[in-house]
Amino acid sequence: MVRPHFFEPNPQTRGDNAFQSTAAIRADTRTALAEDAHAEVSRAADLLEAAGIRVHLFEDSATTTPDSVFPNNWFSTHSGGHLAIFPLFAPNRRPERREDIVAFLKREYRVQEVTDWSGLEHDGLYLEGTGAIVLDHCERVAYAARSQRASEVLLERFCTRFAFEPMMFEATDANGMAIYHTNVMLSIGTRFCVAGLDTLRDARRREELHARLTANGRELIAVSQQQVGEFCGNLIELDGRSGPVIALSSRALRAFDARQVARLERVARLVPLDVPTIEMAGGSVRCMLAGIHLAPRPAS
């Protein structure tokens, strides 16, 4: 996780992120906004650690990276000691990539190889990490909603490199705008998945997605377009000290109905995190967490 000391909805991402607040940020409120974002990340990290999740919390004191709170867009980690670095669409997001975080991961975990695709930004090719890609680690499928932040060419390269099967599809919001990141409408856990199938207007593709997601007996919890807009699709299953944990925002939890909540609680403990300021930027809890799938190095 990255705790920002500067934060605001990014003007360079507003054009294609319908989840982002469009309210103008007044100069006299900028300091308070940054303080609120800082406090929300701090509380979220504390609650996750209390739930038995190991959290590495990094500070970002820069004043030019409004989206640094979303590190899962610029790197991902994979079993076998692999780390991937991704090309980002917005120019002011590219400085989020940090050598000190990569060095920390190499020091604390067994990293055998780093694959860096960031140079493809110069060719206009983007693939924004596990925002653009939602990975099914059990069935080895990489799901991606087509957008300017998810290149089909790079998805193919990613899948070839890390042994996933690509499945790209068209997904739009209620106004017909392309879903900017797949992880706002799809989350995949070990025994469950949450999917905003209504975002797929092609009925045949919708049926194909449903079939793939449930092929191994996984329970599918369908959420509406309205619930997708409340970040119900933007949750993540984590390994807690006493079993699986589902981290999600308080806003998303309120938007689920009682039956959906009961179905989620059957498979994992729910840990709601209150992040209303962060959500102004168009992302929620899943976007704030860059998962680690690396073996730790033995303690010296």
Automatic annotation (TrEMBL):
Gene3D superfamilies: L-arginine/glycine Amidinotransferase, Chain A (3.75.10.10). Coiled coil: none annotated. Signal peptide: none annotated. Pfam families: DDAH_eukar (PF19420). InterPro entries: Amdntrnsf_FN0238. This is Amidinotransferase. It comes from Novosphingobium aureum.
